[in-house]
């Protein structure tokens, strides 16, 4: 077995102690100098929105695009523009903020009804969200770092709400499912046989979604919204944007 190595600083300290004990005069003890490692500083992403909004970038709303003034998605307090464009080659969903930033996401939904988009923020502290739908399913996107980012499940698959196409859901809404007084993003599934609606909270950890608290209600006024995309008093039909139909 090899002998343990003695660190130089420890050796100096032992010599100094022996010298002091021997009474060998007034020679001052050596002083060990310890240099702390330099701190590592991680810079924050420069693309993140500030109180002034996202940095102006992009070309704005394209000519010929279908657009609507919608809620503040980047957190600067100003209303933003939500738009859908089709240049014949590519279909694009876009957001142009009040500060002049534009960010986009490709549309790859294939439903024959065309694409619609709806911006929402279920509770004041929630991130800005966009639902992109073809009337069969709705993809969930998040405004993060001045970009439109696809929300996924834990396995990395795009998070989609069923809108009656696969039998797993019929709508999307914003309801308080946790009892904290704040609306939660929820998937809705109306059962025509029982007249009940199952409501499932959708939790977000960054851009990863998961099913949370569930309940079941026999709706009154909610019956109209169980087969639609809504959030509070805002609806896809009244407050969303629809792709132009040729």
Topology:
Elements: H1 8-21, E1 66-70, E2 80-86, E3 91-96, E4 102-106, E5 116-120, E6 129-133, E7 137-143, E8 148-150, E9 160-162, E10 171-175, E11 184-191, E12 196-205, E13 208-217, E14 230-231, E15 234-235, H2 236-239, E16 241-242
Antiparallel strand pairs: 1-2, 2-3, 3-4, 5-6, 5-16, 6-7, 7-8, 7-9, 10-11, 11-12, 12-13, 14-15
Characterization of the model:
This protein has two helices and 16 strands. With 246 residues, the chain is mainly β. The longest helix has 14 residues, at 8-21. The protein has one domain. The termini are far apart. Strand 11 (184-191) and strand 12 (196-205) form a beta hairpin. It has helices at residues 8-21, 236-239, and strands spanning 66-70, 80-86, 91-96, 102-106, 116-120, 129-133, 137-143, 148-150, 160-162, 171-175, 184-191, 196-205, 208-217, 230-231, 234-235, 241-242. Helix content is 7%, strand content 35%. Mean pLDDT is 83; it is low at 1-50. Strands 5, 6, 7, 8, 9 and 16 form a six-stranded antiparallel β-sheet that branches. InterPro entries: Integrin_alpha_N (IPR028994). Residues 1-24 form the signal peptide. It comes from Cellulomonas denverensis. Keywords: Signal. This is Lipoprotein.
Low-confidence stretches: 1-50
**Helix share bin:** under 10%
Mean pLDDT equals 83
Distance between the termini: 83 Å
The total number of structural domains is 1
Q: Quick one: biggest sheet?
A: 6 strands, antiparallel
**From the alpha-carbon coordinates, what is the Rg to the nearest angstrom?**
29 Å
Indicate the structural class.
Answer: mainly beta
Strand content: 25-35%
Number of DSSP-assigned strands: 16
H/E topology pattern: HEEEEEEEEEEEEEEEHE
Shape: globular
**Total helical elements:** 2
Protein name: Lipoprotein
Keywords: Signal
Signal peptide: 1-24
Organism: Cellulomonas denverensis
């Amino acid at each position: 077995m090899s002998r343990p190595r003695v660190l130089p600083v420890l050796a100096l300290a032992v010599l100094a102690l022996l010298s002091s004990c021997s009474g060998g005069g007034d020679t001052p003890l050596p002083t060990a100098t310890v240099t702390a490692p330099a701190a590592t500083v991680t810079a924050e992403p420069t693309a993140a929105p500030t109180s002034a909004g996202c940095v102006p970038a992009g070309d704005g709303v394209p000519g010929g695009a279908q657009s609507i003034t919608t809620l503040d998605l980047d957190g600067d307090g100003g209303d933003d523009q939500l738009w859908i464009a089709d240049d014949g080659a590519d279909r694009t969903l876009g957001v142009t903020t009040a500060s002049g930033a534009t960010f986009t996401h490709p549309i790859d939904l294939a439903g024959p009804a065309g694409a619609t988009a709806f911006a929402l923020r279920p509770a004041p502290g929630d991130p800005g969200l966009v639902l992109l739908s073809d009337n069969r399913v709705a993809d969930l996107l998040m405004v993060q770092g001045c970009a439109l980012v696809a929300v996924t499940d834990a396995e990395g698959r795009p998070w989609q709400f069923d809108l009656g196409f696969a039998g797993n859901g019929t709508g999307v809404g914003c309801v308080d499912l946790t009892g904290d007084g704040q609306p939660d993003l929820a998937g809705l599934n109306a059962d025509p046989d029982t007249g009940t609606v199952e409501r499932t909270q959708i939790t977000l950890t960054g851009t990863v979604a998961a099913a949370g608290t569930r309940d079941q209600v026999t709706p009154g006024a909610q019956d109209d919204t169980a087969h639609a995309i809504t959030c509070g008093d805002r609806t896809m039909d009244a407050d969303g944007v629809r792709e132009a139909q040729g």
